């Protein structure tokens, strides 16, 4: 899949506000302080050949915001490389992934899937209605690569021939350029003269519009490439606490909350202040959402439902940067404050984000478990775990795309949130957005100079 939208920490669409247990935490926002383009209503009760969709909330990265839908249509090189590594782990150590093509392998019937091309081999994977096709052809076993036609007259096929087999691939978007690339890599392997790193970088730039070294350098969270595969919560050391009553609550949260750790960071802010910034009607929240392109915010009040649990709803429209398709996605978050919360010491919040208005949005939801813990000396530790819950059975290919782009959105969201929290000033709240932007630029410059 390749959707790139992601609401809340769950996807990259996070939001919060209003204090739960104490009125003293709430800090209402004056009308004149609210960002102009945000309409806030307070509720009282409540790339080329890729056409597979995938979800992820619009990640706010230092480079540019991309929607999950945009990602699905124009996947990045790193997205495809992660997919290749997960499908063909045995090939990864032997060769370098170069490019991928959407095509169909003809064997009795056409099996629509994806061709992954490396410096030493060509790999193909498809999964249709429970039927999986997966194979690897070493370049040195290939005897010829020819242009072919589907149904006699449609020029969209390529045939790769070995001594013992013929592999017929159809449905190429651009057969001629695809065949040229395959032929070039085949000849280089036969001559034992692999393409140089510079040549491969040029191919990647041409096909994906980016370089192999392009990174989300601003991420404060671990790379999800390995974590998402495991699906298990990353072990988090028990943070120092200031009260013995907090220890059992935190230990229970760490042992029971499922998902992958997406943020574990200590901020130089008191617990009540950090909670107010994230979960109350605070100017920081509005500026942060404005920077992410959010409109039509509707914020509900915290309401006690049972046994001390409190719930509120937050809904908004998230702008999508699509060349085609929907221009915005509707997001509805249900935030639940755990009854285990101890005011002024620890807050445990679960956020479930539901999306609508984009393909496959009703097939999954993103759940984020957040824990804010007082660590003393006016510092607070924020821990967050996220998981993607599927509500419908999807083809393996679509499911993988959704997960890949969703995790990318989550990672981008927490990176932006961390920078915003670090740069935010109570004395100049309106400058938080610009300070966050300047912090990202400074960090990228530092990373680049270290590489040089």
Brief sketch in words of this structure:
With 452 residues, this protein is an alpha+beta fold. Helix content is 30%, strand content 31%.
Features:
single chain, 452 residues, alpha+beta, nine-stranded mixed β-sheet, seven-stranded antiparallel β-sheet, 12 helices, 30% helix, elongated, disordered N terminus
Characterise the protein shown here.
It is a single chain. The chain has 452 residues and is α+β, with helices and mostly antiparallel strands. Helices cover 30% and strands 31% of the residues. It has helices at 8-11, 68-73, 77-87, 89-92, 175-190, 197-208, 224-230, 246-256, 271-279, 283-291, 396-423, 432-451; strands at residues 40-43, 97-107, 109-118, 121-128, 131-138, 142-150, 154-162, 166-170, 260-267, 294-300, 303-306, 309-319, 328-337, 346-356, 364-376, 379-390. The strands form 2 sheets. Strands 1, 9, 10, 11, 12, 13, 14, 15 and 16 form a 9-stranded mixed β-sheet that branches. A 7-stranded antiparallel β-sheet has the order 5-4-3-2-8-7-6, sandwiched between helices. A hairpin with an 8-residue loop joins strand 12 (309-319) and strand 13. The longest helix has 28 residues, at 396-423. The protein is elongated.
């Amino acid at each position: 899949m390749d959707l790139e939208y992601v609401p809340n920490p769950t996807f990259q669409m996070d939001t919060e506000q209003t204090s739960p247990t104490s009125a003293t935490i709430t800090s209402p926002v004056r009308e004149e302080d609210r960002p102009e383009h945000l309409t806030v209503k307070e509720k009282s009760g409540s790339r080329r050949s890729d056409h597979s969709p995938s979800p992820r909330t619009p990640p706010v990265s230092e480079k540019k915001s991309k929607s999950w839908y945009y990602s699905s249509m124009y996947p990045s090189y790193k997205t495809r490389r992660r997919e290749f590594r997960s499908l063909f782990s045995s090939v990864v150590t032997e060769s370098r992934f170069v490019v991928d093509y959407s095509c169909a392998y003809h064997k009795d019937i056409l099996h629509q899937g994806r061709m992954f091309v490396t410096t030493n081999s060509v790999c193909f994977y498809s999964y249709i209605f429970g039927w999986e096709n997966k194979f690897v052809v070493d370049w040195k076993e290939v005897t010829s690569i020819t242009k072919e036609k589907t149904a006699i007259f449609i020029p969209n096929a390529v045939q790769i021939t070995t001594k013992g087999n013929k592999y017929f691939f159809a449905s190429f978007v651009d057969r001629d350029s695809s065949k040229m690339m395959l032929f070039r890599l085949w000849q280089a392997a036969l001559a034992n003269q692999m393409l140089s790193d510079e040549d491969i970088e040029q191919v990647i730039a041409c096909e994906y519009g980016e370089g192999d070294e392009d990174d989300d350098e601003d991420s404060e969270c671990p790379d999800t490439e390995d974590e998402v595969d495991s699906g298990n919560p990353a072990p988090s050391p028990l943070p120092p606490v200031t009260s013995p009553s907090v220890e059992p609550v935190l230990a229970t949260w760490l042992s029971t909350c499922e998902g992958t750790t997406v943020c574990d960071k200590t901020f130089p802010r008191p617990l009540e202040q950090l909670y107010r910034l994230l979960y109350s009607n605070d100017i920081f929240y509005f500026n942060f959402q404005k920077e992410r392109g959010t409109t039509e915010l509707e914020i509900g009040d915290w309401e006690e439902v049972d046994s001390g649990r409190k719930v509120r709803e937050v809904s908004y429209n998230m702008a999508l940067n699509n060349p085609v398709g929907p221009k915005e996605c509707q997001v509805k978050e249900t935030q639940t404050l755990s009854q285990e919360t101890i005011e002024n010491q620890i807050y445990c919040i679960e956020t479930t984000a539901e999306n609508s208005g984009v393909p496959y949005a009703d097939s999954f939801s993103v759940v984020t478990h957040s824990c804010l813990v007082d660590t003393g000396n006016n510092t607070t530790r924020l821990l967050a775990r996220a998981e993607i819950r599927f509500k419908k059975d999807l083809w393996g290919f679509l499911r993988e795309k959704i997960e890949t782009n969703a995790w990318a959105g989550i990672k981008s969201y927490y990176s932006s949130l961390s920078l915003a929290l670090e740069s935010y000033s109570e004395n100049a709240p309106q400058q938080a957005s610009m300070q966050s932007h300047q912090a990202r630029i400074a960090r990228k410059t530092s990373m680049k100079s270290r590489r040089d």
